[in-house]
Amino acid sequence: MGLLDFLFGDKSNTINEFKDKGAVIIDVRTPGEFQQGAIPGSKNIPLQTLNTKIAYIKKLNKPVITCCASGMRSANAASILNRNNIEATNGGGWQSLQRKL
């Protein structure tokens, strides 16, 4: 799987698998972007603060679906979480993710 497939490919099966496991959705956009629209129930943890929230996210004890505006920041966030032993997948842009949910 190439980077573009990872970022923009059809992730419906993975999203559904994570959703079935009770995944939490973490939106890594800025607070201003988040306030303009977001998936109901998602948590806003901006990418630039993600490293400081690892312990909090681990305490949730749930897999994570990351999202942002286009999928670039959320891909980075999923990678950071996976490196910290948190099961995470890139959900891509929040609006397209919302349609998949």
Describe the protein in words.
By secondary structure, the chain is an alpha/beta fold. It has a domain at 24-31 and 40-101: Oxidized Rhodanese, domain 1. It contains six helices and four strands. It has helices at residues 3-8, 12-20, 31-35, 54-60, 72-83, 94-100, and strands at 24-27, 43-44, 64-68, 88-93. Helix 5 (72-83) links the parallel strand 3 and strand 4 (88-93). The chain is globular and about 30 Å long. 30% of the residues are buried.
Short description:
This protein is of the alpha/beta class. The chain contains six helices and four strands; from the N terminus they run ααβαβαβαβα.
Key descriptive features of the protein:
four-stranded parallel beta sheet; 6 helices; alpha/beta; 17% strand; 101 residues; Oxidized Rhodanese, domain 1; 46% helix
Describe the secondary-structure layout.
Layout: H1 3-8, H2 12-20, E1 24-27, H3 31-35, E2 43-44, H4 54-60, E3 64-68, H5 72-83, E4 88-93, H6 94-100
Parallel strand pairs: 1-2, 1-3, 3-4
Strand coverage percent:
15-25%
Which CATH-level-2 architecture of the domain at 24-31 and 40-101?
3-Layer(aba) Sandwich
Q: What series of H and E elements makes up the topology?
A: HHEHEHEHEH
Residues in helix, %: 40-55%
Distance between the termini: 23 Å
- Class by alpha and beta content: alpha/beta
- Quaternary state of this entry equals single chain
Average residue-wise pLDDT = 91
CATH class term of the domain at 24-31 and 40-101 = Alpha Beta
Low-confidence stretches: none
How many helices? The count is 6
> Taking Cα atoms only, what radius of gyration do you get, to the nearest Å?
12 Å
Per the CATH scheme, the topology name of the domain at 24-31 and 40-101 is Oxidized Rhodanese, domain 1
Shape: globular
Main sheet: strands, sense, barrel: 4 strands, parallel
Going across the biggest sheet, name each strand in turn. Answer: 2-1-3-4
CATH superfamily of the domain at 24-31 and 40-101: Rhodanese-like domain
